Amino acid sequence: MYDPLHDSFIGQGEAYPESYWANTSDESSEDDGILTEDKDVEVAIIGAGYTGLSCALQLSRHHNIKPLVLEANQVAWGCSGRNAGFVLPSSGRMAFSQMTAKWGEEVMRGIHAEMQQGVSNIKAFIEEGVDCDVQPAGYLKLAHKPSELTKLIAQAELLKQTFNDQIEILSESDVKQNFMDDCNAYGGIRFTSGFGLHPLKLAKGIHKLARENGSRVHTGTPVISIDNEGKYQVLQTPRAKIRAKKVVIATNGYTPKGFHPLIKNRSLPVLSQIIVTEPLSDKQIEACNFMTSNVVMDTRALKYYYRKLPDNRILFGGRGAISGKSAEDPYYANRLLSVLKLSFPALTTLKIAYAWSGWICMSLDDIPHIYQNEDQTMFYGMGYCGSGVSFSTQMGKRIADKVVGLEVPNIPLYQTPLPKFPLAPLRRVGQWGYFQYGLVKDKWF
User: Which of 44, 45, 58, 407 would disulfide-bridge 244, Cβ 3.0–4.6 Å?
Assistant: First the structure.
């Protein structure tokens, strides 16, 4: 499998992975095909995922700029078409309490408002007609051991006090009686915000809106090199050269090795693994008391997450392999199925129907960032840490604001660069160490 830390070429025109999303996506995805002619453009966007497509839509709809989007493979071929479809008012891995301690309450509230806006963006797309199999609202965060419930209750009380959030505190019996009989759940909290959807259909819907508003999206068109030539950035593709006044890098976890100095050594691509089971029978659903379609995540350092899909399959996800060469090893999918069956013993005969993996983009400081070079000709947005379905659309909008010279909120996400990883060649060693720490923490602490 393609590995961003080892491969400088992401491929050209590669098909979608054999995922549940790719096999159930019936949305039309007409694009502009492979770019074969040289172009001079005002803005070129590299990457047709949520960030790039949202940026393109914002520029074409609100700023009278018709950007050129260049995608190496297919629309949303990367994480935007492979994720679990969890729409949450958050991103990165830093808690709001940590943000307050680091930057103060005003900055924390500014970040919170931006993340809420990300969810509003998704709802606006849906209201505009993007059909992406939206499920009932609700996000369950479950304690994977009794001691974690106390922490969750404290978190809920803080969020209620700070933001007036509507959060239910659930006992172990509440979870098992009213949502699902997860044997590894010891209570939890439930947010009324957050919901599940079909992530690839969402991306294709945004893609359609962007093209309807004048953006051009060329698939099968990888950017091989970027060079500065006076007032232009020159992008070389296999069959054409593009001269752009401004360039947006929106490749996130699928950024090839050595792609551009502006983002070198500033991210860690990490594999996430997802399985989707065969459909549950009515008897199996009753045996598990699986009444909810809310999105679910636990409190482990190495988190598991799941939800019941509209056709009664179970999507279940967690960490995958460390390197791309091990990504297709069936061990990782089978491990997830084993954990699922530990939570729901009635599903002992359940089988995997789909299994796939994909790269998420971790930042050193656990928050996503937008930044640019000194002459304001190169921009990037990345570092969602596995929680970017909604917030990546807001990042796309804010990158567009920066491209046209508008002010953006004065928060660290938009005003500071991604920090470089120290000892960058050893990033995977550090990742392995964190995984070992997580295993110990989740079991004993």
Answer: 44
